[in-house]
Design goal:
This protein is of the alpha+beta class. Helix content is 60%, strand content 12%. The two termini are 64 Å apart.
């Protein structure tokens, strides 16, 4: 459609209108700076397209419309549309075509389209009188209004519904982004809740084993059992201080593990020897809270405790490759039974679950038989400081 400076419209390539994107209502902060310029540039481009169409059509039929006249008229037409698009857009966002009252809202937008079209006609006539007085039509005013009404009314309605469609599209896109943001937030909270539940499952399991060991020692050495209770209290206080943290430094994890091993060495005496092969350059690495204690507990319970002979546990922390951290708990016990593997116990199953929650596919856990006997529990995860 092309519109003359007098407001006279002619039909043409109406499909070009769908390129209009009036989204002045509540632009996102990232776009707010450039939005006014892009908004008016979009309407200007549409006006230029219709000016070119009107000029070429007039030239083809010998009407002799100059490019300046065609451009003035088209830009005046579409700038009036640009101004009216603001309230139309807000109305569409305020009363979307959905829900139980969609029929009432459809009727409301039908009335809105009529008002939009009539206001455009009056506004366009005012712009012509104000800015282009030299292009007044010789027709009587009532005939001119009737002519413009017939020529432009339905096209104006089409523009209104394009604005409504764009408003609904923007609203739908905003709802998708909001839903995605809430989903990410919910997944984060769910993962945190799962991790806390897993950690809380570890603490009672460890406490039960420690108290069971103290109870056994009470019948052999009361003083040693009393000392173990004091150590256990210190250990629990240390555990509570960091109970809300999912990641701690390797230095903190080793410090906690030393307190636990002190309890176990008091219980086993010379039957338990602990060796440490810790790279000092890795002590600031971030590791899951209580990642080593259940592995050491399993090594003692399944590897050292069933044997009469002295047992040895080796703690290792190395970086096998750039950006990777490997933690290892090795024992010289009886080895891994054929029916036992990763995930078959509370400690190992929690280790697997926590690694999956924290690192997805970047974390791994496995049990390997040692060449000289015993088992190595190996945890590999990203090296983050």
């Amino acid at each position: 459609m092309g519109v003359s400076p007098m407001g006279v419209a002619s039909t043409g390539r109406q499909g070009r209108v769908v390129r209009v994107e009036p989204s002045p209502a509540q632009p996102s902060p990232r776009r707010s700076r450039w939005f006014p310029w892009l908004y008016w540039l979009s309407w200007t481009l549409v006006g230029l397209a219709f000016a070119g169409q009107h000029y070429l059509k007039a030239a083809s039929f010998g009407e002799g419309v100059s490019w300046a006249v065609a451009l003035q008229g088209a830009l005046a037409d579409w700038y009036v549309f640009a101004l009216l698009a603001f309230p139309a857009f807000r109305l569409a966002r305020r009363f979307p075509l959905g829900g139980a009252r969609w029929r009432l809202r459809l009727a409301l937008h039908g009335l809105g389209g009529v008002v939009f079209s009539l206001v455009w006609i009056l506004g366009r006539a005012g712009v012509g009188e104000l800015f282009f007085p030299g292009h007044r039509s010789e027709k009587p005013l009532h005939e001119l209004i009737r002519y413009v009404l017939v020529a432009t009314f339905f096209f104006n309605m089409l523009v209104y519904w394009v604005v409504v469609t764009v408003a609904h599209t923007v609203a739908y896109a905003d709802s998708l982004r909001e839903r995605e943001r809430r989903l990410v937030e919910l997944e984060g909270r769910l993962s945190s809740a799962r991790l806390m539940a897993l950690q809380m499952q570890l603490n009672p399991h460890f406490l039960f084993n420690a108290l069971n060991g103290i109870g056994t020692l009470m019948f052999r050495d009361v003083d040693a059992a009393d000392a173990m209770l004091v150590r256990l209290a210190e250990l629990l206080r240390h555990a509570l201080d960091r109970s809300g943290r999912q990641l701690v430094s390797l230095r903190e994890e080793i410090s906690f593990l030393e307190r636990y091993l002190t309890l176990e060495q008091m219980r086993f005496g010379e039957r338990l020897t602990v060796e440490r092969e810790i790279d000092d350059g890795l002590l600031d690495a971030q590791v899951p809270n209580l990642i080593l204690q259940p592995l050491v507990e399993n090594a003692i319970k399944h590897g050292i405790e069933p044997r009469v002979a002295p047992g040895r546990i080796v703690l290792r922390a190395v970086s096998p490759a750039p950006g990777r951290l490997r933690l290892e708990v090795a024992d010289n016990g009886r080895g891994l039974p054929p029916d036992r593997g990763p995930g078959s116990g509370v400690g190992t199953s929690n280790t697997l679950a926590r690694l999956a929650q924290l690192y997805r596919s970047e974390g791994s856990f496995r049990l390997e038989p040692n060449p000289g006997g015993g088992v190595s529990a190996v945890v590999e995860l990203p090296l983050r400081r």
